[in-house]
Amino acid sequence: MGSMTLFALLFVLATLPGVVRRFMPPMPRAGFEGNPQAVVTLGAGHTERGGRYQVSPAGLRRVDVAMHVADEMQLPLLISGGGRRGEGVPAEAVVMAEALKARWPDSDPWLETESRNTWENAEKSAQILAQRGVQRIVLVTDRTHLCRATLCFQNHGLEVVPLSASRMPSPEWMPSAGALSVIPEIYYEWVALIWYHLRYLR
Fold first, then answer.
1. Rounded distance, CA 64 to CA 77, Å?
2. What is the pLDDT along the chain (202 residues), one digit of tens a residue?
3. I need a labelling partner for 137 at 20 to 30 A (CA). Which of 10, 42, 78, 106 fits?
């Protein structure tokens, strides 16, 4: 098989949702008995345009899914995310809450605004939740991020039901640019998981 043929085959495989899905980090054991006590979602960055900060598409998707779940189950919502902030730059959680207000005017989420990464999302969220007597949560983030996020929250003593805010395109065996776009995220997550196991996870 020539190199160009091999490259073309690999490229086609990388566009198939059914193939790409199999390379995602596997989900850890998760779940609990009883009912969840809160919904938690995580920041995904924001951008500045014309002097105003806007939540990223991923962050908007996460907070929208999380609010739907919180509303349906009548649970409080915690938005976690500080981000790497400079002078005058708002926390990710603040920008996400503002975007949420535009869609859900009566929303009043709890905010965690000091975290800079997923480990700190879990660490600082766990402190807020403990003050409110919350032990069992529904954790909402993108599927590629869900394995690492779940492990971090479990390591901080929380019982977790993970919920993906993103979905692979369907049908599984139809080539899709959306599936191809997920590959860099999967690569990043595997590298991040190795680093987190070396530095944080026990």
1. 11
2. 556 665 455 544 556 666 678 889 999 999 998 999 999 999 998 888 877 889 999 999 999 999 999 999 999 999 999 987 777 789 999 999 999 999 999 999 999 999 999 999 999 999 999 999 999 999 999 999 999 999 999 999 999 999 999 876 566 666 666 777 888 899 999 999 999 999 999 7
3. 106
For residue 86, which phi and psi values (nearest 5 degrees)?
-105, -175
Q: How many residues does the chain have?
A: 202
Structure tokens at 101: 């207000």
Residue 15 · residue 179 · CB < 8 Å: yes
Residue 163 identity:
L
**pTM for the structure as a whole:** 0.91
Helix then strand count (H, E) for the chain reads 7, 7
